[in-house]
């Protein structure tokens, strides 16, 4: 709106008092002003006499209640009140005594959508005795709560406190653990919290405490936030991935390109839990529209966009039907479809529809960072701000304008991860060329430059704000960026580190004939599933070598058994296989007999198929 002023938002800390106002206690100064709204969605709701000016001394109260297990989203069409005097207060709860956050709206402005944290919102509009405006109009919708942020998003460290420099964003006294979780989820700056169980006290913190900063504390419980999702994405603990439903239209390939630009791919519903989450996510964005997901049969059979085999399906009745002979990509039906709502459908890949992306969680977000010298702190490269303007305070800087020898920045991830890739954001307002060339080091030594390198000398396109570097299969707790050479200045605007959900390390025997040109299929079993996932690998050609391979899969629990199958008569001899789970951060060892796992379709050389049980 022309002449609008910035939205004013005030935040108050209050005691928690549940006081639900029945409709006969809600006050109003005029007919149609205020009321008890209980429909799942409703509106338009307006100020008195809208779109003409409201009167002086108005007083209106609304109580919006939607079904339990849902949240409320307010969407404003317009807002124009006498600035500073006529105010709409929006409470995230059942009354003005039930909440901690208050939205205080006044003046002429464009109001962004406002979402509650529960199924109840209380609104109160008041005007003074002079000056008016055209007022406001809004509608509301209810949205089912799916745990994009909840207990499963946090890692619990019992009997632990933080002895480092973490700042308490806010403290809440005498509250439940659930309250503390939701308070941290609602605050994007909150990366961890401490819950003192004896006193029911909650302390929200602005960082993740490192292993060295965590200290024994009998009544303490540290909870570290694990989501690490880019802006606009929602975290699913079941997959350790982040998802976003884009409310814009693309062809299948264009949608895939957009997801790849985010550092991910089209979303892949590999099981019922993930499928339900994606349905809720796309319906929250737009329930009346179809959405692409990452499944196609461009190669003749239905496979996920990453090449993974299709084992779980949720096709609509009669689908896929390949109508017209050219329906090679998969989408979700709109939820309002008469008979196939939210089910899968095959359609032409050239159709223009919405889409859902998935990306890995950034395990570096909020972790403790260091650099060899500091003009601007190392921490701003892991604060989630990808702005590339140094003047905005979002980029690191080593201390000397004349440079230093081999300047290095590094982050302590707190534990060892199997790394998929790094995304590095470079300064764009000036001096972009300073970063080239650079090295990446990953390993478990805090002497970062002694850790193995991911590739050689990397170069970033100076016309691009970021670069994605694949380091698939490398393991380490410390990730470093180093500028080799003398008199160099290191500036990083953000460093994102993405781990894998699963990895395999396959060790070939050092016997002269242990390498093979055959492929090896590894099938993984666990107590949670009779058959969990299959991964076929190739290129195991060298003897006495450890090969790393990564793959994506939903959490299938602790792997307990492997079935190994070879594809040919060229002998393959293995010493052991490790399965890495990004969900637990653990490696599971499957050891071969003393003479090795000997695999071949030639029975005189070995077995075509072998089973291995997890050690111990």
What report would you give on this structure?
With 616 residues, the chain is mostly beta strands. The protein has helices spanning 177-185, 252-261, 272-285, and strands at 10-11, 35-37, 42-46, 59-65, 70-80, 87-91, 101-105, 114-115, 120-126, 135-144, 154-162, 168-172, 192-196, 201-205, 214-225, 234-236, 241-250, 265-266, 291-296, 303-304, 329-332, 344-347, 353-360, 368-371, 408-425, 439-443, 466-482, 494-499, 502-508, 520-526, 529-537, 546-551, 559-566, 572-581, 586-591, 597-599, 609-613. It has five domains: 10-144, Spermadhesin, CUB domain (Jelly Rolls, Sandwich), CATH 2.60.120.290; 151-225, 3-Layer(bba) Sandwich (Hepatocyte Growth Factor); 234-360, Roll (Mannose-Binding Protein A, Chain A); 368-499, Jelly Rolls (Sandwich), CATH 2.60.120; 502-613, Lipoxygenase-1 (Sandwich). It is built from three helices and 37 strands. The strands form seven sheets. Strands 16, 17, 18, 19, 20, 21, 22 and 23 form an eight-stranded mixed sheet that branches. The chain has a six-stranded mixed sheet with strand order 1-7-6-9-4-2, with no helix packed on it. The protein has a five-stranded antiparallel sheet with strand order 11-15-13-14-12, with helices on one face. A hairpin with a 2-residue loop joins strand 30 and strand 31 (529-537). The longest helix is centred in the middle third of the chain and has 14 residues, at 272-285. The radius of gyration is 28 Å and the shape is globular.
């Amino acid at each position: 709106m022309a002449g609008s002023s910035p939205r004013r938002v005030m935040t108050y800390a209050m005691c928690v008092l549940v006081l639900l106002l029945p409709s006969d206690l809600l006050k109003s100064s005029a007919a149609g002003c205020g009321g008890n709204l209980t429909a799942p969605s409703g509106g338009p709701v307006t100020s008195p006499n809208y779109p003409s000016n409201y009167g002086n001394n108005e007083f209106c109260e609304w109580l919006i209640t939607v079904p339990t297990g849902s949240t409320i989203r307010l969407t404003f069409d317009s807002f124009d009140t006498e600035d500073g005097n006529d105010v709409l207060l929006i409470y995230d709860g059942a009354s003005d005594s039930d909440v901690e956050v208050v939205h205080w709206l006044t003046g002429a402005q464009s109001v962004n959508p406002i979402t509650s944290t529960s199924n109840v919102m209380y609104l109160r509009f008041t005007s003074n005795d002079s000056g008016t405006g055209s007022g406001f109009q809004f509608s509301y919708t209810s949205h089912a709560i799916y745990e994009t942020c909840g207990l499963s998003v946090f890692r619990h460290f019992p009997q632990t406190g933080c002895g480092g420099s973490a700042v308490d964003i806010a403290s809440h006294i005498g509250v439940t653990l659930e309250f503390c979780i939701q308070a941290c989820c609602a605050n994007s700056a909150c990366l961890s919290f401490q819950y003192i169980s004896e006193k029911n006290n909650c302390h929200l913190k602005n960082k993740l405490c490192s292993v060295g900063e965590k200290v024994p504390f009998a009544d303490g419980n540290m909870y570290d936030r694990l989501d690490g999702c880019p802006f606009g994405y929602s975290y699913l603990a079941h997959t350790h991935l982040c998802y976003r439903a884009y409310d814009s239209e693309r062809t299948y390939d264009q949608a895939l390109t957009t997801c790849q630009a985010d550092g991910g791919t089209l979303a892949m519903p590999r099981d019922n839990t993930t499928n339900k989450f994606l349905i809720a996510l796309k319906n929250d964005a737009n329930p009346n529209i179809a959405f692409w997901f990452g499944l196609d049969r461009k190669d003749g059979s239905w496979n996920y966009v990453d090449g993974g085999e299709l084992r779980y399906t949720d096709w609509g009745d009669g689908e896929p039907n390949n109508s017209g002979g050219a329906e090679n990509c998969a989408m979700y039906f709109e939820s309002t479809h008469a008979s196939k709502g939210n089910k899968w459908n095959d359609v032409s890949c050239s159709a223009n529809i919405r889409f859902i992306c998935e990306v890995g969680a950034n395990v570096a977000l909020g972790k403790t960072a260091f650099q060899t010298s500091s003009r601007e702190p190392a921490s701003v490269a892991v604060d989630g701000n990808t702005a590339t303007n140094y003047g905005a305070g979002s980029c690191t800087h080593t201390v000397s304008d004349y440079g230093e020898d081999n300047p290095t920045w590094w982050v302590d991830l707190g534990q060892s991860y199997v790394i998929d890739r790094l995304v590095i954001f470079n300064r764009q307002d000036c001096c972009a060329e300073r970063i080239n060339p650079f090295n990446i080091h990953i390993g478990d030594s805090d002497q970062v430059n002694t850790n193995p390198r991911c590739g050689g000398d990397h170069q970033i396109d100076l016309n691009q704000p970021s670069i994605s570097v694949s380091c698939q299969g490398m393991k380490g707790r410390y990730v470093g960026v180093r500028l080799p050479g003398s008199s160099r200045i290191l500036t990083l605007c953000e460093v994102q580190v993405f781990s894998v959900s699963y990895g395999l390390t396959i060790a070939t025997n050092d016997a002269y004939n242990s390498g093979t040109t055959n492929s090896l299929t590894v099938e993984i079993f666990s107590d949670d599933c009779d058959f969990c996932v299959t991964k076929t690998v190739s290129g195991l050609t060298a003897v006495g070598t450890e090969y790393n391979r990564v793959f994506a899969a939903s959490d299938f629990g602790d792997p307990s058994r492997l079935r190994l199958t070879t594809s040919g008569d060229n002998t393959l001899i293995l010493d052991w296989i490790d399965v890495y789970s990004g969900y637990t951060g653990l490696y599971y060892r499957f050891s071969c007999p003393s003479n090795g796992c000997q695999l071949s379709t030639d029975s005189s050389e070995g077995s075509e198929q072998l089973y291995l049980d997890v050690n111990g």
